[in-house]
Structure formats: structure tokens, C-alpha cells
Design brief:
Residues 15-113 form the HTH hxlR-type domain. The chain is of the alpha+beta class. Helices cover 47% and strands 16% of the residues. It has helices spanning 13-24, 29-38, 43-49, 55-67, 89-92, 95-108, and strands spanning 4-6, 9-11, 41-42, 71-76, 82-87.
Length: 129
């Protein structure tokens, strides 16, 4: 990618894109952001909505997204405490990117070979009736 300048400060777009990619890198961050783009979630709801993620990993990913200003964590002073997660206005700017990815997947997703998940928490088998 070509280096570009902005005024007197030199900006290396490759480095800037690497910084942008690092905000959403990791196995779970994009999925978390996709879900939070749809609505506000409580921690337990997020964990159930993402098969394979552990409680520890969800906590770590949410903390990183919050530190980067992409997720807002709201704690309600109730007993038991209630915590909700939502994306910030800055993260809403990623909406067109998520829509473009969804459109791409709708067009080409069936051509991508399915790979079995080899990491994370396994889904529990259904209980016999």
C-alpha cells in the first residue's frame, strides 16, 4: 500500500490499517461486535449466543473492546448486579463494513468449505427427553 501524507505529518497507511485490524483481531471480537450491532446484550446472553467461547475469553475480549472505545459496559446498581454491553457510536461507524461482509457472505458463503471448530468450549449435547 502506498504511503500517504496528511498535511505535514507523514502517515503510513499500511501501519494505520494494521492498527485498525488489531482492534478487531482475535477469534471472537468480530462476532461480539456483530451481535452488539444488533442489540444490547447481557454477559450471559452473549456467552450463550457464541458457541465455543469460554467465560474467561469473553471477559477478556469485552475488556479489550471496551478499552479501545468500541464497547460500552453499563453496570446497574441492582441485586443481583446487572451488566449490559452495547457498541459505541464510534463502533457504529463499522456498520457499513459489517453490511458489506454480510452481503459478501450471502453471495459467496456457500462456496467456502466448512471447517470444524477445534478450539473453545464445546456445545453441550441435548439432554434426552
Amino acid at each position: 500500500m502506498k504511503n500517504q501524507t496528511n498535511g505535514s505529518a507523514d502517515i503510513n497507511m499500511h501501519d494505520e490499517m494494521r492498527r485498525a485490524f488489531s482492534l478487531l483481531s482475535g477469534k471472537w471480537k468480530l462476532e461480539i461486535m456483530w451481535l452488539l450491532n444488533q442489540r444490547v446484550y447481557r454477559f450471559g446472553e452473549l456467552r450463550k449466543a457464541i458457541p465455543g467461547i469460554t467465560q474467561h475469553m469473553l471477559t477478556a475480549q469485552l475488556r479489550e473492546l471496551e478499552a479501545d472505545g468500541l464497547v460500552l459496559r453499563t453496570v446497574f446498581a441492582e441485586v443481583p448486579p446487572r451488566v449490559e454491553y452495547e457498541i459505541t457510536a464510534k463502533a457504529r461507524g463499522l456498520g457499513p463494513t459489517m453490511e458489506a461482509l454480510a452481503a459478501w457472505w450471502e453471495k459467496y458463503g456457500k462456496t467456502v468449505p466448512e471447517r470444524p471448530s477445534t478450539r473453545g468450549r464445546r456445545a453441550k449435547p441435548a439432554a434426552p427427553k
